[in-house]
Every structure is written in structure tokens, then in C-alpha cells.
Amino acid sequence: MKNTKLLILLSFVLCFSGISAQESPSKEYQDNYKKVMDRTAWWRNDRFGMFIHFGAYAVAARGEWVKSNEEITTERYQKYIDEFNPVDFDARKWAKIAKAAGMKYAVLTAKHHDGYCMFDSKLTDYKLSTRFGGRDLVREFLEAFRAEGIKVGLYYSIIDWHHPDYPNVGNHPQRNDKEYGKRKFNWDNYLKYMHGQVEELVRDYGKIDIMWFDYSFDEYSGEKWKANELVQMVRKYQPDIILDNRLKHNDGLSSKQRTVSSLGDFETPEQGIPDVPLTDKFGNAIPWETCLTLNGVWGYNESDKNWKSPELIVHTLVNCVSKNGNLLLNVGPDARGNIPQESVSILKEVGSWMAKNGESIYGCGSSALAKPDWGRYTSKGNTLYAHWLYPNIGDINTRGVDGDKVKAVYMLCTGAELPYQKSWWGNTEPGNLFISVGRNPQKPYKYDTVLKVQFK
Length: 456
Ligand code: GLC
Fold this sequence. Notes:
Blueprint: H1 2-16, H2 27-39, H3 41-46, E1 48-52, H4 57-60, H5 66-69, H6 74-83, H7 91-100, E2 105-111, H8 137-147, E3 151-157, H9 178-181, H10 187-203, E4 210-214, H11 227-237, E5 242-243, E6 288-293, H12 310-321, E7 325-331, H13 341-357, E8 375-380, E9 383-388, E10 396-397, E11 406-411, E12 420-421, E13 434-435, E14 449-455
Parallel strand pairs: 1-2, 1-7, 2-3, 3-4, 4-5, 6-7
Antiparallel strand pairs: 8-9, 9-14, 10-13, 11-14, 12-13
Helix pairs in contact: 7-8, 7-13, 10-11, 12-13
The protein binds alpha-D-glucopyranose.
């Protein structure tokens, strides 16, 4: 009797605190969560990667969606395929650019929505290798990046705007073409092709670290793609591979609904950064990666010169890491195979910052401290990194740090020790650490001056 009353009381308490008694994770969920965290450990450590959108759409030079945006037929699109001849393509050059930027992994479009394959698929002739001296661009990419010690990933579009059995649904270029819609589409046939191509990629190209599927929409989601079977097959060949979450449509889930899936290891916020670290509905951290363009488009665009500054990129990377996230930063090489000069310059600048400050990014994650006025925090073990991003008057106060526990403070990029005090003028209460950085309101080193606070 007493127990029953207690139980009722407990359910009331749980109910009103917003936690329902059923909401504790099942054993199966916990096992999967652990696997996800184990698999993604290296990736969550590495934090910074290169996305590469490269395909025949670079000739049209109006972004990788040109076929859809302008409702171009496959026949009319052919002129871009015929013209595409990336004579300057040298994967080793790309790999060096990524490495110098401090990027630790890279993901290349093996096939984008237009269906044109950058790898030597045996299942189609709609591929670069039928020309281009038979070269397999994907293989060259994999070899060159691995040689630089960079982990490798492949983007594969599960949508296909070229395959005759892929219906004119969603944003298909022929979505408004009534005649096209009358064709017979054999969905099973398309699935066989799509699964077959993924199998080629995970079976015939050595170790692949990441598979980046894109994307699900409406009812074209999850089992419509036979996603479970697909994932099982991928993991059979590549047991440690990390998968993104786009085999299933789950955009817009709130933190109260979000779960870690067995169909994908990380979330993929696109062109934006979550306000807070992403967590599942049980409060566990979820691996995530913001993917971001350097201008406004993924594929090469001749007229988009709206480049983000190196400062904004550094701040963005810090922003992601301060919330336990990764940044996958895109380049869209031109039709000859060159990464645009503007992108190269930005990445070079980011790389020079990373060379001195990478310690505050790699292996780092969020800090329990509230975001300060002057910047952001990242942390790792016994060390707090105070990223001074915005102009500041007076000392840098790392509010919430117990000064008694501090061993020393350093300027990360020079190694110089910095003086600090626990109180300043009216501020005598405990829990403040005022780091003296001189009287200059501007940070002394671009693009982010990192103060390293070491604890005892
Ligand atoms: C979107 C776009 C695609 C791009 C991708 C990158 O899904 O369809 O063009 O490759 O985002 O995240």
C-alpha cells in the first residue's frame, strides 16, 4: 500500500517535471548509442573537415542544382557532360590544401543528384571514366588524401535525376513535365542500382571512413530506400564506417524528440549552427556536423563572389566546437578541376590560425561555463580555452572559474604566461578570473586570440 502511494507520487513528480517514466532509454537504444559514440570518437576529436562538391555541373557554373532549378532535361544537360574535362584535376594538390588548412577528413561527391558518377561504376556508363583517359577520379581522391593522413569520406546522392527508374518526384528537373510523369518507373530496379553502386563504393575502394548519404524527403525516407538493408550491407564491408543521418527524413526534431538512430551516426545541420549542443531526448550528447559553403553554393558558381572571411570561418569553427560539433567546410572546384583561388586563400589563412591554435579545437568540446561577452569557450580535460573574438574593455573575465584552482594562464599562440587576478574593483565575490591582456580593446592576434587556462 505504502509502495503504491509512493509510486503514484513519483509518477506525478516525473510527469510535472516533464520527464515521463517511459522515457528512459531501452537497452537496445543504449547499446546503439554506445556504438555510435565509439565509432565517432576519432571524428569528434578531429572536428574539421573538407567537403568537396565536384561534378559536370561545374561547367554550367551555376551550382550543383542547375539541372533542377532550370528544369533541364537529360538531353539538354548532356552538353555539360560532353564539355566536362577536368584537365587540371590533381587530387594531391587538393589534399595539400586541406592539410594546410588543418582539416583532418574530407568528403567528396562520388555521385550528386544529377546522377553523373565521378567513380568508375560498373553499373552505368554515365560516368566520367568513360572519357578522361579512363581515370577514376574518386580512386585518385581517396589515394591522395589518405597519403596526406587525411581520413576519407564519400558523398552519395540517393536521389537520382538521371536514372530512368527514378520518378519525377520532389525537386526532380522534370517534376512539371506531364509526359515524363507518364513513364513507368520501376522503383525496385532503381533501388537495386542505388544499393549496387553503394556496394561498389564500400567494397572496391579500400577503407572508407565516412559515407555521406543525401537525402530523404517526404515519404522518400528510411525504408523507402531499404535503408536498414543498405546500412547492414555497408557495415558488412566497412564495420567502422561513420554514416550521416540523411537516409531518414528527421529535420526539425526538437531536443525533446531527438534520438540517435541506427541508420546514421551524426546529425547534419546545413548552412547553420545549433544554438546549443545537440542532445537526444534523454539528455545525451549527439554527434553533429555543420556543413557550410565558403560562398553561397556547393558546386562551382562563376558569379557568386560572396565569400566568407577567414575570420568568420575561424569563428564558425570555434562556435561548432564550443557546442560539441564539427565543421565540414565546402569547396566547389571549377570545371578544370581547380579549387577557386578565393577558397584557397581563405583556407590558407584559416590554416595559419589552426597551426598555432589547433590545440583549442582538436579533441575539444563544450565547457559548462556560460558564453561570455567577449567570445566563446572550448575545453579539453584540465584545460579551458577562452577564445577572445570580439572587442573587450578591461581584463578578460572568465566568469565562473575558481581562481584558486588555476595553475596558470597562457597566450596560446605565443606561449607567453599571462597575469590574472581573482578580483577587480567592485568585483570581489568568488568565481571570477580576470586575465590581464593589456589595455587594447582589440584582440592582439587575428582571428581569435586564445587564452589557455590550465587547472591544477
Ligand atoms: C543539400 C543539397 C545538396 C548539397 C547538400 C550538402 O541536400 O541538395 O546540393 O550537396 O545539401 O549538405
